[in-house]
Predict the structure.
Amino acid sequence: MDETSTEQGVLSTEDCWAVLRSREFGRLAYVIEGAPSIAPINYVVDGDQLVFRTTDGTKLHNIIADPRVAFEVDEVDDADEVGVSVVVRGEAHVLSADEEYRIEQVGLRAWLGHDRPVLVAIRPAEVTGRRYQLRRPWRSMMRG
Amino acid sequence: MDETSTEQGVLSTEDCWAVLRSREFGRLAYVIEGAPSIAPINYVVDGDQLVFRTTDGTKLHNIIADPRVAFEVDEVDDADEVGVSVVVRGEAHVLSADEEYRIEQVGLRAWLGHDRPVLVAIRPAEVTGRRYQLRRPWRSMMRG
């Protein structure tokens, strides 16, 4: 976190990207027949895109039908009682074979077990982030 | 996790609720003008509902206009290389004053700083969960 973050807890775009680059696990939100859906994904930042693998037919079919997605990563530091959340809004598209080759170079890790042969990239239209002060009064009660 | 979970990593409904009750931080997905949105929330399980506070006008206005939501919690155990994710699909509604009184009894904690006077409940229509084996080959490489 650099010093450009405001006191109100709004992260600068640079801070948001630093958080995105430091993580490899987030949640993808998309819309199926008007209803929201959400799924955990492993991802990697490649330049100004987020890339993930999938074989999930429902997810993939939907992304092709309606590419609008939202993506979130967060981290909670219990010791400092601070939480950070970064949200990306944009469009997802399936990568072509030559793009896949390029992505292999950046080392997207196959976390989630099964083969996930289709690579999908999220092109962010908006990246926002917030830092939260976590107030948990029962903590001071427990200490006292 | 009880023994009813299948080898394929699908959690039983009971396991899903156990995960939901053990956490207090998740992500809410909702739809604004056809596009997905996602936000971190603190929540508490009250019976068969999930309850959270908000003052976010956009989120609240949208939930009233279109109550369909998806909600996700997850946990990653780096030591065991296992991840668990639970997704709730359902509808959200603003609690009335007498319902609020009841919720105060269950102790929803005001994590996120500012006052959040409006209580919203998610009534689940579907609760699903999966356990993932996290395969991270660079780990064994680092060990080796």
Residues 13-22 of chain A form the longest helix (10 residues). Chain A touches chain B through 37 residues (CB under 8 Å). Chain A is about 25% helix and 45% strand.
